[in-house]
Design goal:
Organism (chains A, B): Spiribacter pallidus
Largest interface: A-B, 79 and 79 residues
Cofactor (chains A, B): pyridoxal 5'-phosphate
Pfam families (chains A, B): Aminotran_1_2
EC number (chains A, B): 2.6.1.9
Distance between the termini of chain A: 50 Å
Number of strands of chain A: 11
Pathway (chains A, B): Amino-acid biosynthesis; L-histidine biosynthesis; L-histidine from 5-phospho-alpha-D-ribose 1-diphosphate: step 7/9
Helix content of chain A: 25-40%
Oligomer: homodimer
Strand content of chain A: 5-15%
Number of helices of chain A: 13
Chain lengths: 365, 365
């Protein structure tokens, strides 16, 4: 017999991007930073003492909480540390959404959102993005009409890379009856003058998610944090968050990484430069690539190519290069490519040229 | 205004034991192993490469999962890795308990259980332990009558240290209608012939919790795992567990620690030896100390002492030694002392002698 709850029986789990063991495989499928973390972070790792592992860690991950507060110019009671950004998504549901109440999202977006909602036993209230990957004007009204206590927006958007301006986020927070979680997993690759953290003083329902997985090259460490008004942060930090959810290593290494802004910013700039070159190279081959404020590009296959987007992905995989393809109506003709180093992007483009040329040589079928 | 769910508003958060920054403070309050982790684990930490941090970790923490399966003689689909044992407690509720359905526990036990149930919005169905800290004979019948889908038993028991034999666990699993989670956080300090893992083949509702926090001296790393029938493990491992909840460092360091059984066992033996000496020293001073199969002792204050248990705890704290006191009816006259190294235990006993002598010199008040 099964002991699972009914909603768990019905649902399917999240499918993470492929993580191959083979070091020769070029991974442009899970939006990692192609550049390594800060040397200061690696030094902090080397300095972890036996006693730091033997003892329970700081229950609040105090070192990271302090550094994050300093970085954003807020107080520590406006920060909650989490085991990756994903833990904050779950905690926002646990804290603000009675099971059964709907969770608001835009479609398409991060495929984990509906999975977490299914675990929570909440339906999804989804609004389709417009052709420019922007929210419909009546988004907040629709969420309010559905009685949504929590809306999740990824900005810059995944998988398109589109950036909503801070003014639109402010408008949304003001218009929504419930909590607005802005998932800024990719914000480090957006223009530097984009800033929504300043809005938390004005909107007591605005929760900003940050992660060190992308911008700081620390996906393996599992560290994220939330920024919001103290009244929004307190129930998460003091009640629903798992005790000791951030370990002692993440606390020490993460704090060192946050403190080394020079290193982080240099990788963000390098990613943005490489993204521009990759975009132009894809466009030169007939792909359509909307402007991206992230470390990935969503490329629509050339309209005159005999190859489907799925076939391009498979062709690249056969050449040892992983990218992502989502087999959903709006995304079926597109591929998502994480921006690599210039050398990695060159390898991708070379392989792509081979695949496109081979297809052009085939008689039309 | 508040955006919290009603059940979250009503509840209070978990209170972890004090974690002082001052290295001179002797921490005998949170049941850490007084001996350091395996040198092999420290070596694995030193060998973490930049790329292991830069990339997402193994979604299943495959290295730990493999080692744990090997250690217990089960297959990897009978193991789920978690961010500390605490994550498994939460996941068991998420996976097996519809919010609102009761969660079964014995009282007293680990103070996190009712907190997790409150977050889950489930009532607690509690049965009082008998005078020997054992379960009442009709425990399973009472849980079944209340319609409990998940029962949590900590064995060896906290905070008494009492061990239920495997035969009683088997009887319970057979009798319970729902899932039985046996929290074996302290089992490494129990007699070596005690084994309930062998029971999972017979009971498809038996979920065994293990942690590396105590036995392996790795509380700072946050690593635990569950052992159970594949049908019990699969929905947790593939659906409700947070994606990547165990980081790359914990996967590598934890696997190395599990592989070094010789080191771990030597610390378990040392703890058991020190526990015997500590028990006798406490008994010589008039404390009553039940036999403990854990790395702590629950000591009832001498009946003729003018000092309350709380006053003893405060007196020790004033001397830089932290122990735990629970101000609840059954535990108010007791102190819980984590077993330290022989030197640490000597320091505790010396301080205790000072406190008891000073109190004896005071006129009765």
């Amino acid at each position: 017999m099964t002991y699972e709850r009914e909603n768990i029986q019905r649902m399917a789990g999240y499918q993470p991007g492929e993580q191959p063991d083979d070091d020769r495989v070029l991974k442009l499928n899970t939006n990692e930073n192609p550049w390594p973390p800060s040397p200061a972070a690696m030094a902090a790792l080397q300095q972890i003492a036996e006693d730091a592992l033997r003892r329970y860690p700081s229950p609040t991950a105090a070192a990271v909480r302090h550094q994050a507060a300093r970085l954003h110019g807020v107080s520590t009671d406006q920060i909650v540390t989490t085991n990756g950004g994903d833990e904050l998504l779950r905690l926002a549901m646990t804290t603000f959404v009675p099971p059964g109440a709907p969770i608001g999202i835009a479609e398409p977006s991060y495929s984990l959102y509906p999975v977490l909602a299914a675990i929570h036993d909440s339906p999804i209230e989804a609004a389709e993005l417009d052709a420019q990957w922007s929210l419909p004007d009546d988004f907040a009204e629709r969420m309010n009409a559905a009685g949504v206590p929590l809306t999740l927006i990824v900005n810059p958007h995944a998988p398109s890379g589109h950036l909503l301006p801070a003014a639109r986020i402010s408008q949304l927070a003001a218009a929504l009856d419930g909590v607005l979680l802005v998932d800024e997993a990719y914000v480090d690759f957006a223009p530097a003058d984009h800033d929504v953290v300043g809005l938390i003083a004005r909107h007591d329902n605005l929760l900003v998610l940050r992660t060190l997985s992308k911008g700081y090259g620390l996906a393996g460490l599992r560290l994220g944090y939330g920024i919001g008004a103290p009244g929004l942060i307190a129930p998460i930090a003091e009640k629903t968050r798992d005790s000791y959810s951030v370990d002692a290593v993440a606390d020490a290494v993460g704090a060192a990484a946050l403190a080394d802004q020079d290193h982080a910013r240099s990788t963000w700039q390098a990613v943005c430069d490489a993204r521009g070159r990759l975009t132009r190279a894809l466009e030169a081959r007939g792909f359509t690539v909307p402007e991206s404020a992230t470390n990935f590009c969503l490329a629509t296959r050339p309209p005159d190519s005999p190859l489907s987007a799925a076939a391009i992905k498979d062709g690249l995989k056969a050449r040892g290069i992983l990218i992502r393809h989502f087999d959903t109506p709006r995304l079926a003709d597109k591929i998502r490519i994480s921006v690599g180093t210039p050398e990695q992007n060159d390898r991708l483009i070379t392989a792509l040229d081979e695949i496109l040329a081979a297809a052009a040589d085939q008689p039309a079928g």
